[in-house]
Amino acid sequence: MENVTLRILADKLNLSVTTVSKALRDSYEISEPTKQKVRELATALHYTPNAYARSLRTGKSETIGVVLPEVADHFFALVINGIESVAKTAGYHVLIYLTHEDYNREKEILEYIRKGRIDGLLISVTKETTVADHITKFAPENIPVIFFDRMMEQVEVPKVVTNDFESCYQATQHLLDSGCKQINLCTISDNLIISKQRIAGYIKALQDNNIPAGKDNILFCREDDNSYTQIYNLLKSENRPDGIISLVDKLTLPVYIASEKLGLTIPGELKLVSYSNNPSAGILNPSLTTVSQPAFQIGQTAAKLLISSMGSKRNQVLNEVTVIPSNLVIRASSGQKTN
Questions:
Q1: What is the rounded radius of gyration, in angstroms, for the C-alpha atoms of the chain?
Q2: Engineered SS bond to 65: which of 52, 97, 118, 135, CB 3.0-4.6 Å?
Q3: Tell me, what's the pLDDT at 88?
Q4: What mean pLDDT is predicted for residues 83-108?
């Protein structure tokens, strides 16, 4: 099938290419009868605009880049849905790049997309990312950047996050109120700002209840392949906890499996809270008490800020931090009935 171009439409209608182009863009310079004729022919011949040619003319790709660790996590899947809902309405395409928690991969991706492939960037950094040189390179290119969830405080761009300190304080206090005497945290990183804030909230809750708090009660599961073994050994130890807060969803199932293997009942001998947006939380046995993060809203808000920052009001959102609260959903695993 012949590729229908503006030139073909113009020749068939005995009009200039400029007139046809303006008619398709609904320009005020073109009369309504002419616009109607152009639209009807374009529809009849199945004309579609050449996005590459348009980007050359406008200097815009009409594409948003999203860089994140993974999509298997329900949190990030919901964030993407939120981003897509805003981007589609605004006429932008979304390109998704996965770093798989690899800092070097993150650098490679950002170097690749910085060369004119996107109009703006939404990013949640890897657990290995401690420096931001590869991110600050976008500013001289006039490509706005927005952090969501995992952010870097030293980079002065807008950030969309949740209340990590307060939510972990609340989760810790909830387990204390449920009768726990020794609460451990399980996390994947001590580099991430969100991990540091959650750990700080946990420690503050213990201190406010006159309970000694320290890093000895924090289990860092940095390698996915070894997470189950670490959790199993923790629960098998003589000084095992009677409460666990999992700071990431992927560490929740290993707690259930290890507990079953060791004959520990949840919530009788071990109470559990997890940061999770997993829709199966309510049907696990026992059902899982969760810190439910506003993932979809985080994605929506980040996308709206990015699109706004790509317009003429870019400076008005510089270094703005938007905090959207999480919600503690109490179920059976923490030993208290849902309100």
A1: 26
A2: 118
A3: 86
A4: 93
